[in-house]
Specification:
The protein has 418 residues and is α/β, with parallel strands linked by helices. It folds into 3 domains: 119 residues, NAD(P)-binding Rossmann-like Domain (Rossmann fold); 169 residues, Dihydrodipicolinate Reductase, domain 2; 79 residues, 2-Layer Sandwich (Alpha-Beta Plaits). The strands form 3 sheets. It has a 6-stranded parallel beta sheet with strand order 3-2-1-4-5-6, with helices on both faces. Strands 8-10-9-7-11-12 form a 6-stranded mixed beta sheet. It has a 4-stranded antiparallel beta sheet with strand order 14-15-13-16. Bound molecules: L-homoserine. L-homoserine (HSE) binds next to α6. Keywords: Amino-acid biosynthesis, Methionine biosynthesis, NADP, Oxidoreductase, Threonine biosynthesis. It catalyses: L-homoserine + NADP(+) = L-aspartate 4-semialdehyde + NADPH + H(+). It comes from Niastella vici. It holds the Pfam family NAD_binding_3. Its EC number is 1.1.1.3.
């Protein structure tokens, strides 16, 4: 596609993002990008655009030779994959915002990009307005990426902010996130961490060349965070955030997961409120950098789609440099993790699984401890997410120092709690 050629778009989906893109394109005539047809599921729904624009027949878009770009912003993952693969095979460039679909089909999508040599861009699928994918692809090409820590889900960050700062209850905060168009149609995807884990899945590919199925990542959402956890956080001068993180260990492997975490007030991520997202990158040469911007909502998401459309003008493609041009990194669960766990009864907690427990409060109805576990304990067992147990990572959670492994376990008898 040459730089002067117009972009003729076939748009799939006219929800929060699709309609946002329609409006944004009307305000950016310089891009010379026009939506020729919009494919929707429900023709009965009233839309803020001329009727003639809409169809329910996907082939009208996929088989139209004039349409050179397909923008796919629908909800359902399998139909989205079908649309994207057909479009690429039909020689069209594709821009997508379907994070679940990308996470679930990444190996096939990588294959299709190689086969068809078309562009498949999805900047809007993670952190909406923050250009995180292109940054990871381009800027850190040769730099050593020590770690990335991020808030990648706007709805859960919005809910935590409203609950702990504005004192709304969970249901009120969720309802507001839904009304503002931040939440997924099925909000459990946000609340229980699936959406963040999906985004983290393909961000790991761009950051470290890691390609794993979505269920390979240990993750949780904010559903078990208890009011008492917020009180402990306040006492300790922490915020609670849902943090996606990846850290390169000394053995060259990568520790990665998405879990709630206590965040110190002076941490960059503590600054991230409401539907904003934030990404803190630590690298060998650039040192620490912080990216911040709206992570959900109609225009912020459409802005990233717009930026992808504009990148198509110079045939921009992801090169997946860490995967194809460098030795890809490997994911590992072989490290230790410092956690805070709150619970109703000791019987739900396998105390013997802890390397050591360094703090505990057991007098009140809601009890808690702070201790260190091997990460495999979280990967292989589910006690930490059952029986109203709440697990929140300590601020500097990953312990990899080999000396630590040699430390004699501080016995629980010594601690006097077994
Ligand atoms: N439900 C998502 C979120 C939308 O809250 O982050 C943006 O991907």
């Amino acid at each position: 596609m040459d730089a002067h050629k117009s972009l003729t778009i076939g748009l799939f989906g006219f929800g929060v993002v699709g309609e946002g893109l329609y409006k944004v394109l009307q305000q950016t005539p310089s891009l010379k990008a026009t939506i020729k047809k919009v494919c929707i599921k429900n023709p009965e729904k009233k839309r803020n655009a001329p009727d003639a624009l809409f169809t329910t027949n996907k082939d009208e878009l996929l088989n139209d030779p004039e349409i050179n770009v397909i923008v796919e912003v629908i909800n359902e993952s399998e139909p989205a994959f079908e649309i994207v693969s057909t479009a690429l095979k039909n020689g069209k460039d594709v821009v997508s915002a379907s994070k679940k679909m990308i996470a679930e089909h990444l190996p096939e999508l990588l294959g299709l990009q190689k086969l068809t040599e078309r562009s498949f861009l999805y900047e809007s699928a993670a952190c909406a307005s923050i250009p995180v994918i292109r940054n990871l692809e381009e800027y850190y090409d040769n730099d050593l990426l020590h770690s990335i820590k991020a808030i990648v889900n706007g709805s859960t960050n919005f809910i935590l902010t409203k609950m702990f700062e504005d004192k709304l209850d969970f249901q009120q905060a969720l309802l507001l996130a839904q009304q503002l168009g931040f939440a997924e149609s099925d909000p459990t995807l946000d609340v229980e961490g699936f959406d963040a884990a999906n985004k983290w899945n393909f961000l790991l590919t761009h950051a470290y060349g890691i390609v794993v199925p979505p269920d390979a990542l240990v993750f949780n959402g904010i559903q078990s965070i208890h009011q008492s956890d917020a009180l402990v956080a306040t006492e300790k001068h922490y915020d609670i955030k849902l943090v996606a993180q990846a850290k390169k260990l000394e053995n060259g492997k990568v520790a990665a997961f998405v879990l709630p975490q206590f965040v110190k007030h002076d941490d960059h991520l503590a600054f991230v409120k409401n539907e904003y997202n934030g990404v803190v990158i630590e690298s060998g040469f650039a040192d620490k950098q912080f990216f911040y911007g709206k992570g959900a909502g109609s225009f912020p998401t459409a802005s990233a789609v717009l930026s992808d459309l504009s990148a198509l003008r110079y045939q921009y493609k992801y090169e997946y440099k860490k995967l194809y041009h460098h030795k890809p990194n490997e994911l590992t669960n072989d490290f230790y993790i410092r956690v805070y766990v709150s619970f109703d009864d000791w019987k739900y907690i396998p105390k013997e699984k802890f390397e050591w427990i360094e703090e505990w409060h057991a007098e009140t109805d809601r009890k808690y401890l702070v201790g260190v576990l091997h990460f495999n304990e979280l990967a292989q067992n589910s006690w930490w997410r059952e029986n109203k147990t709440s697990l929140i990572l300590s601020p500097e959670a990953v312990i990899e120092d080999v000396e630590v492994r040699k430390l004699k376990k501080k016995s629980l008898e010594l601690a006097g709690i077994v």
